[in-house]
Amino acid sequence: MLEAKWHAALAQWQIVLGSHSVIADPAQLAAVETATFFTHQKVTAILRPASREQVQTCLRIATRFQVPVYPRSSGKNWGYGSGVPTQTNCAILDLSRMNRILECNEKLAYVTVEPGVTQRQLYDFLTTQKSNLWMDATGSSPDTSLIGNTMERGFGHTPHGDHFAQSCGLEVVLPTGDVIETGYRRFPQSVTGPLYRWGVGPFLDGLFSQSNFGVVTSMTIWLMPAPAHFEAFLFRCDHQAQLGPLIEVLSRLRLAGTIQSAVHIGNDYKVLSSLQQYPWDLTQGKTPLLPAQMDAIRARLQFGAWNGSGGLYGTKAQVAAARREIRRALAGKVTRLRFLDDRMLALSLKFAKPIKLLSGWDLSKTVALLQPLYGLLKGIPTDRVLPSVFWRKTGPVPADIDPDQARCGLLWYAPIVPATSSDIDRIRHLTVDTLLAAGFEPMISLTMITGRAIACVISISYDRDIDGEDERALACYRTLAESVTALGYNSYRLGIQSMEEMGSSEGYLDLLAKIKSAVDPAGILAPGRYEFRKGSHASAS
Amino acid sequence: MLEAKWHAALAQWQIVLGSHSVIADPAQLAAVETATFFTHQKVTAILRPASREQVQTCLRIATRFQVPVYPRSSGKNWGYGSGVPTQTNCAILDLSRMNRILECNEKLAYVTVEPGVTQRQLYDFLTTQKSNLWMDATGSSPDTSLIGNTMERGFGHTPHGDHFAQSCGLEVVLPTGDVIETGYRRFPQSVTGPLYRWGVGPFLDGLFSQSNFGVVTSMTIWLMPAPAHFEAFLFRCDHQAQLGPLIEVLSRLRLAGTIQSAVHIGNDYKVLSSLQQYPWDLTQGKTPLLPAQMDAIRARLQFGAWNGSGGLYGTKAQVAAARREIRRALAGKVTRLRFLDDRMLALSLKFAKPIKLLSGWDLSKTVALLQPLYGLLKGIPTDRVLPSVFWRKTGPVPADIDPDQARCGLLWYAPIVPATSSDIDRIRHLTVDTLLAAGFEPMISLTMITGRAIACVISISYDRDIDGEDERALACYRTLAESVTALGYNSYRLGIQSMEEMGSSEGYLDLLAKIKSAVDPAGILAPGRYEFRKGSHASAS
What are the residues facing B457 on neighbouring strands? Predict the structure, then answer.
């Protein structure tokens, strides 16, 4: 039974948005209450504003009736809670109808977008415009929101991989319904709003990333001009112990500017999950897939214990100089290293079939894996990584992928680790031991975000249809998070089930609480999101 | 006559700091009340805390007795108000005694410092340590504070030129005396505090840059490993009209990553001011120096209407590739372009004297100008730029430079302008016309901070000992600022006399006011600094 204040708010929202944009249909609500792990939160309604003005009115109504509202852009925050609110009994503020690309400046290399604009939409837009600009993309679905990912401080693969660092000039609706603009954008006559991040006076953009202080309704994203030449470098290590020394070399290359983009390195489990589902036959239905079994598989499928990729961007001569430098630095550190450009990739694609006919060696699988990875280094979104969430499902992967509704189990845990051999070894051992002991495969991807720091994305992948797996996966997450945090590594981003990782740092959390009261006196915006103090908010478990 | 609350606060401060660290001597107060332009602000006392704890206590006392306090690190914010408070009747919180380098990590390339640490101190430290790390330096005095400059979002010349972007993990004392730490530093057990900027949850560092929300008591600065090879490129344009097209080429090179550092370009007036004082003889004592006279001087002294420099960092091959690309791109765009490395510079120094003897051509002056510029591209602080503040003084430049006490007149106005030909032409014409009409030389330096945005630093340089010049200079500043703002360009940084440029943007300023009330209920920290609303604060004029 809804309380009276909800009835009043819903009636007001319907007047503002029209009744078709205030959804209370139980089936649709159930869908948005579902993530890739256990959630208990109920959703009261879905609001679908079409404009910033409607967002303002929605929040004013929420403030007036003191009912909580939880914004989502595309709701595809898989592994971190999808679009499910942190707290129960919120109305979802679905921003996906606000999907305009407001401006594109080819010369100064930026676009200004609304929260509903997806990776695919921007990529298609640039292609249609015959733009010379490259975007950055994450490996997640092409249908994820650019603003959503940026405000979660997500990352991709190109030199613009740190999304938040390449954003500029926010328009934000505060919980009270007031609008603020950041940077120079706040000056009505300004022409530099999209060009210079800091503006004048306090730089406030950071307040609206990983927070519940406001709803970002538009933002500028800096793009990169297509380089004259592009080459990918791909490497693998056949031995686990190669990883540590390799990380140190890559750190040096990144600090020196030879490598200007993120370097991604996935372990064998991670790679296998993007090639196929769990090998039920081989393991006679048992889980987890043991290291010895994994070793055999990768020897057969020809990938490494660790498999990495990065991009080189510049003129032909610049790329060649970087290539030589990388070849020299990685010599003896990796089992195999190769470089790939558009021409070589096209040749591989062309000759995959003939080679199979002649030699029996099936290149097509390698190329199928390679092509999306290669594309990501050029900022081309892909849906080829996505099927990996079906890893533990016994049925086939459907054509239309919806991990939430398909009951795929996925928890992502993503601590930042120093780019040193000893730190990387520490997290590697801990992860492998913890996940295998809990019955899950230790899938690890490492992203060297800067020369100093590596984002470890650890997937706990499971089948939600198996009794008790939700609980086991969450318990495994908590065990891992606790021991990793004790080592001194913290998450770069939190799932809705793990807000207690915000910790108990007095000063910082007190300041957040003060800012929250100042901008959201009624406490109606995304309560519990990136705010936690012991005893104040119950977490999901 | 001090009010009773001041007597009470001073007594308390003396107990905490010792009486030698609470200065009320009129001569010393008069010194810190002096900037490089007219100021009316009186200073009540100077507090000299030696530790974070003492800063906390000082602020608690200030809050308790409701007396305003104004922090300064080195007080050398010349051209923007030196160390003079924005508002009258503040106690200065002088942080220069907190000058420890708390940590230096050679492998992961950073230092953690206190606010009293100067450019010179860090440079000497790195040299003594035989460190392989390079810092970034501004062209201002070697004795300026690193934290002070970073929090003002100042910039230098290397790939780490955007200082705020290369900072991480702040420790901040809030006006109430509470301490907060930002990023992962807030977690007591964290090892990644100095390595990853964003931490988890809202990113708050921006709140403490260009604000009056807290006193930064320590901060990590990311450094760059010395590159295998370094080369400077130096260019000049003999015609004013070359600037616009040149800017567009440089923007493309910067966006493409060929140029990875700031490019600095100074006009003829700017260059002349760093070579000599005003040519009183030539002009028969008249001011300003007219464009025709300037043309003659630069033809004689062999510099351009615009003179630029930038650095190339990498392996020899990488630098060579970048050099070829720059040579190709700048061909026909500049009058002269040359590249310089350590070996060539050493040769020039060695042969300057013999060449003069043989040819009569005095290279030493060119090299004298070149050397500090070249050094700045390698992050070496210099005191050679400083004498330019004596431009309009009639006496000689003293050995020990103190622009405030020497009554050098200097106002800096620094708007950000889009990196396009038309924008740069617009600001160039407006600046030249406005300054010459007001009787000042239009000294302009352009720093291409990113491929999209150029920081124009315009100096109004004068002699404070001449009657009426203070007023004329300030009037010129205001005329210029008004017309530039009307064109859509805004300052990147404000002097204490120009806080009204914070503008009247409703949402943003309201939010600032709310945060200010939340962190500083007594309003005791740097009142008026980067806060302005019409009618609320009287500005200096």
Answer: B445
CA nearest B414: which of B306, B475, B503, B501? B501
pLDDT higher than threshold 90 for residue A253: yes
Report how far residue B176's alpha carbon sits from residue B169's, in angstroms, rounded to the nearest whole number. 20
Residues ≥6 apart with Cβ < 8 Å to B319: B227, B229, B230, B231, B312, B313
Give the SS3 label for residue B263.
strand
Task: Return the SS3 of B485.
Answer: helix
Q: Which residues of B touch A452 (CB under 8 A)?
A: 108-110, 194-196, 222
Whether residue A214 is predicted with pLDDT greater than 90 in this model: the reply is: yes
Query: What's the ipTM?
Result: 0.96
Q: Which of B419, B519, B424, B413 lies closest to B476, judged by CA?
A: B413
The helices-and-strands tally (H runs, E runs) of chain A is 14, 19
Distance from CA of B106 to the nearest CA of A (A): 11
Query: How many residues comprise chain A?
Result: 541
Q: What does DSSP say about strands B110-113 and B215-222: parallel, antiparallel, or unpaired? A: antiparallel
Percent of chain A's residues with pLDDT above 90:
90
Phi, psi of A148 (to 5 degrees): -55, -50
Tell whether the model's pLDDT for residue A541 goes beyond 50.
no
Which residue type does B225 have?
A: P
B342 at interface of A, judged by CB pairs closer than 8 A:
no
Task: Count CA within 13 A, CB hemisphere, residue B132.
Answer: 13
B156, two tokens: 């230098």
How would residue B68 be classed by pLDDT, with cut points 50, 70 and 90? very high
Helix, strand, coil percentages (3-state) for chain A, rounded to 5, are 40, 20, 40
The pLDDT, as a whole number, for residue A341 is 94
| Beta pairing partners, B340 | B232
CB A497 within 8 A of CB A37: yes
Q: Are A58 and A69 a contacting pair, CB within 8 Å?
A: yes
Residue A385: per-residue pLDDT: 86
- ∠ CA A530-A536-A541, nearest 5°, is 75
Spatial CA neighbour of A159 closest among A370, A264, A312 = A312
Q: What is the pLDDT of residue A537?
A: 43
| Identity of the residue numbered B157 | H
Q: What are phi and psi of A471, to 5 degrees?
A: -70, -45
- For residue A153, pLDDT beyond 70: yes
Q: Is B44 helix (H, G, I), strand (E, B) or coil?
A: strand
Contact in structure between A442 and A267 (CB atoms under 8 Å): yes
Confidence of residue A364 (pLDDT cuts 50, 70, 90): low
Domains in chain B: ranges and CATH = 2-94 (3.30.43.10), 101-225 (3.30.465.10), 229-486 (3.40.462.10), 506-540 (no CATH)
Give the pLDDT band of residue A535 (cuts 50, 70, 90).
Answer: low
- φ, ψ of residue B304 in degrees (nearest 5): -95, 175
DSSP conformation letters of A434-496: HHHHTT---EEEEEE-SSSEEEEEEEEEEETTSTTHHHHHHHHHHHHHHHHHHHT--BSS--T
Interface of A with B in 170-209 (CB under 8 A): 174, 178-182, 184, 186-192, 194-196, 198-209
pLDDT digits (tens, 9 = 90+) for A171-184: 999 999 999 999 99
Mutation target for B interface from A181, A189, A327, A505: give the one with most B CBs within 10 A. A505
User: pTM for this structure?
Assistant: 0.96
Mean pLDDT, residues A292-301: 94
Whole-angstrom Cα distance, residue A159 to residue A229?
14
Establish, for the pair of chains A and B, how many residue pairs have beta carbons separated by less than 8 Å. 305
Identify whether the C-beta of residue B123 lies closer than 8 Å to the C-beta of residue B380. yes
d(CA A459, CA A470): 14
Which residue of B511, B514, B529, B532 to mutate against A (max A Cβ within 10 Å)? B511
How far apart, in whole angstroms, are the C-alpha atoms of residue B222 and residue B183?
14
